[in-house]
Amino acid sequence: MASQLRLLHILTTGLCLISSPVFLGQFQYSVSGNIIKRQASQDEWTVKCKVHEGKVSCGTEMSTEDLSFLCPCDSELKSLAAEVAVLQEQVSKLMAPTEGGGEVEPQKLEDKTNGSSDESGDTAGNGETSIDPGPNTMEVMGPKVGLKERCSNTSECQSGLVCDSAMRECRRGANGQCSTNHDCVSDTTCDIESRECRYGLGSSCSLTLEQCISHAACDTVTGTCKGHLGSHCNVDANCANGLLCDSASATCKQKPGGHCKDEMECVSGGSCEENVCKMKFNNRCETLSDCQVGYVCDREVHLCKYGVGHQCFTGQQSVCEHRAICDSYSNRCLVPLGYRCISSEECMHDSVCDKETSLCSVPIGGSCRGTTTANNVCVTGSECDVTSQICRTVPGVQCMSTSDCKAEYICDTARKVCVRMCSDDNHCDEEQVCDQLSRQCKTALRGTCSSSYDCSGRAGCFPQNDGLENRCLLPVGEQCKDSSECVWNSKCDIGLDHKTCRGMVNFTCQTSNDCAADLECDTRLLVSRCKAKRGNPCETNFDCVTGTACIKNEYQVRTCERGFNASCQSFTDCTRPMICDPQTATCKLNIKAKCETTSQCSTGYVCADVEKECIRPINGKCGDDPECIRGATCMVKQGLGFCKAQKGMACSTDFDCADLHNLTCDPMTKQCRRALGGSCEVDRDCMTGFRCRDNSCRTGCPGWADAMVYGGHCYLLHAIPRAQASAQEDCAHLGGHLVAIETQEEDNFIRAMLMLQSVRPGSLWMALYYSEETGWTWWYPYTSSQTSRLSFRPPWYDGYPSHVEDMNCGYLDTSRDYAWLNARCRDRLPGFICEKSDESHSDTY
Fold this sequence. Notes:
The chain has six helices and 56 strands. The chain is mainly β. This is Prion-like-(Q/N-rich) domain-bearing protein 25 isoform X2.
């Protein structure tokens, strides 16, 4: 009966619960509901076997005749059809509704093959087994396997049990009630406190369910059960984050640095100090902070030890960190020779911390036992002298005295380094000599060098004039044989009893003893230099001492003499052609002396641009004409003479011009010219606007006797009040038109012309007119051209032209610096200027 029930269960539930295809032999089985599909792995046809009301039927899309051939499962399943039908009928009766109606409840099915009930499953106490149909089973129910009975899958086990895949027995799952570990599935254990099957330490768990054994929790990082503080453990992985498995007690405890309440919460060898676990002496550690105060974590052995400098007692072994030992001299943990150090205070007695290697080493002069002893190392730059067994400085390394150096070496007291000792030149290389003062091989005179320490005797390392390399040469003040031995820009100068290197011109000096005999040290300069004395030869002013200049004398020889601006009291203090300027008490060039700038000339003189001679300027005092600038004349009045410009010379004001010949300063040309009525030969002798007529400067052109002429035009001023239109008519009757100023030069002439007039009305009409179509233009209503545009920037007065309506005519105002303004054309202004072409004479201005 049990085998039949199991077969029925497999057919109706087990196989039908398969959610993915299953391969059995050469066939593939899949289930949808209670439809069993079987497909040959290499064929395309499909057989559907259906279990319904205890009958198993097969069907395909093919005809019924082909079923026996195409459905081999048909014969296998139909052989069990009778047994399935009987069992199905029994189950249907047991699942019948209750008398009172309502829902169908599971019934009890007596297992006639086994008269006893499940010993540890869910029992009713009367030997009957409860059948739980489950969510994915059909309504066919049968007996279930009890606790610790054999099973092949969980569906065979009673409710609350699962089939242990390892043991093939029905057992309690996670959180199931238990008495012993054998009640629980293989990956759980029976928790003593809760009497439930729980996951052990290290097992996977769910973060949302309490599935771990007591004193443990599901770790959020690893998703495994981890022990709490004090829980049992075997390895560190059994404990929660921040805890370690204490090997002595096999419990989880706080690791060094963790929070604690007492020493019992810390791992063995630790103590709770200020609520922090600290490791005691000689106990395991990882970092310096893991150890108690006074200890350090030895990184080699990972144990808390005495640090360097800590007190210890002679004979104690392994109490200091690995790089130190207990020094019997000081009873402290100190670093021995050859081990790493930070400072000399960490090293043992009579040793120092080598700055180059950071190892405790024997200092220079300290005792050593030969170069083969690994621990007895000398500091960098020294080695153990085998003979004396003392650390000596190696050649080229710093020393304090010769006793620091090896045999055959001495300490160069200047550079503080060990160098080889010599007794004669044969011990030295080429270009070297044995210096008798230092007993060292040094570079000979004129040999190349890198510093003065390389040079022998009193020579120093100096750059040459070519700047390519430095050579050993004698400085100034040292005895010499010839000038080639002396520093650049110095010479071997003959002294009283011997030759000495002395500086030449412009050599940097401190006293005159540094300079050659014909030179002196000029200390008045920012940097004192050797300069030529007064009367000695020179090439430029830069060669001479302050207060003198390099001047070519009457014999054409350049010597240093009192030069320009040198202080003086009389002419004897200055060199000709200079005189002592009484105004400045300095040496200046005299009259007619050649010059380059006016500053070289005496007061009252200027350096003429062309002649380059010191002469009197215009208006300068003079005695006769030769003292004045070329072209000027010396005019004497009341016993005083002044240089005045003659005709055609440049001027600034009328005062610059010689008035003996009726000269005045032409405002247009800034030259001295003849005024009205002055004698002339050509038009250029006269001021702008005048003409030379009958050897006299006069006004006028044909028809306009009082007109002035410029640029081929005649200009006539009328001091008659007129509106602009009336002024235009008056000018037209005279054969001209109102003035039209078309260039800047013409505007300048009009200004100059008006300055010469005895009567200047003020506001004067011009031919300037405005219209919206053309803007400001020149307007000639009685001429053929009639209009012309402005050709230069008009000199409008500030705020003009005004944009008031009807102010369309322009004029110039002599009271406003001859600026242009605008007014109403009907306004009567005091005067106007007429203009016409000068057809009778070509302009010469």
